[in-house]
Structure formats: structure tokens, C-alpha cells
Amino acid sequence: MNIIVAFAKPEDAQNIKSILLRGGYDNVIACTTGVKALSAMENLGSGVIVCGYRLSDMLYSDLAEDLPGYFQMLMVASADKAPFDNFGEKLMFLPSPFSKNDLYTTINMMLEGVTLSRKKAKQKRLHKSEADKKIISKAKELLMERHHMTEPEAHKYLQKCAMNSGTTMLEAAEMVISLNSI
């Protein structure tokens, strides 16, 4: 799993990175700006960002507002800088000074949360409801009946329509049904 360490001072970022590497975390990237952190998050897709209260170009709150979907943030700062908002449960706070065990435990918990949310999203995509399956089947039947397609051809056509229009297969099926009812 991916971890990004973002602190205004390069030595702080490197110190946290080396603590994490010694703790057995493999994929750790250190940076000093919010822009670089956001870019790294976009490239990695999921994980945890560990940051301080202030980066060289933005505050933690600015970064938290732009967190990609499968990232969580651990803000490390003195207790007087504790955040008031947890940004939809995407932000956790670890007051400094902290122990390595506190850091490892918190990071592990956050990584498990990211993994769980990715699994749930994947299962949701894979398990279509019965109603959705009926709509897709109806669209395939219409294509087979009116355009003399085989079932695999109708399926492929719906997939292609979905990809070309940037929609789900269900939405493509609904479009086919609505166009054929005219």
C-alpha cells in the first residue's frame, strides 16, 4: 500500500519516511509541497498521506479538501493545531511528539480502512442487482430482435456504447431501451 509523507521541511519528511521504511512499509514517497503530494496521489490511486499542519504551498486543510477518493490523511502536529473537521472521516490527527508504535498503529488502521473501502466499491461494481440485470437483458433482447444480433453481439454493443459515452453498462442499456421505445 502507498504512503506519501509531506512536510514543509525536507528533513522532517525524510525522518518520517525512514521511520516508516524501518517499520516495514515499502512504498513511501516524501515531498515538501502540497502540489507534489497531490500529483503523487493521482499517480498512486490509493493510500495514506502523512503531513504536517503547514506545507510550503498550502495548509493541511487545503490538501484534505482535494484528497482523491481512496486516500486518507494523517495530520501530525502539536496538540494546539488539532483539526476541527475530519473531512468526511478522511482525516486523522496524531499529536506530536508521538511514538513509533502510535504512528505504525494509526497508519495500519488507516491502510486497512482504504483497503476495505476499495473492496466494498469493487464488490458493488461486480454485483449488479436483479433489477439492473433485467434492464440489461431487456436491452439485449431489443437489440437481438430489432437489429438481428446474437446475444454476445448485443452484449458487446452495450459495452461499446457504455465506453464511448463514458457511462455504465446499465445506463447504456437504459438509453437503448428509451431509444427503441420511440
UniProtKB/TrEMBL annotation:
InterPro entries: ANTAR, CheY-like_superfamily, WH-like_DNA-bd_sf
One Pfam family matching this protein: ANTAR
Positions of the ANTAR domain: 116-177
Gene Ontology molecular function: any one: RNA binding
SUPFAM superfamilies, alphabetized: CheY-like
Record protein name field: Response regulator NasT
UniProt source species: Butyrivibrio proteoclasticus
